[in-house]
Amino acid sequence: MKFWVAVLLSFLPLWAQAVELGERLAPWTLLDQFDQAYTLDNQAQVLLVARSMDAAKQVDAALQGQPKGYLEARHVVFVADIQRMPRLIAKLFAVPAMQAYNYRVMLDRDARIAVRYPAPVDKVLWLQLEDGKLVARHEYASAAELRQALEQVQP
């Protein structure tokens, strides 16, 4: 019995942190691929969350050919959950490769932020924000769908 109580209590933080429509997102700060800090604020209109390498590749494919500053102009913030990646691989290969991207990637190295926004691991989570509140939620399984959605966001 104690085991099951412990298991249930271990999942409590995940349930407590999941954000619902109409709720204000708690502010957080992450470093990007250049170790520059970014703090989520009320200016963000869209939060993209990739919880796997496959999902992050969808974002990259959707942004191919877009100019530098494309996401920033649309007030879109991209968070990549890289906590499952071995730290040495991230430091030596993955993060330096991300520095060639023409967009900013907020790196969730310790699974502090991405876990707040549950979604299937193989899809890109789109959280539509208005003054810091969640107003809509979508999941994209393909780069083409994501690209089309991004094109609808006004700069």
UniProtKB/TrEMBL annotation:
Segment forming the signal sequence: 1-18
Keyword Signal attributed: yes
UniProt keywords, alphabetically: Signal
Protein's name according to its UniProt entry: FAD/FMN-containing dehydrogenase
Organism of provenance: Pseudomonas gessardii
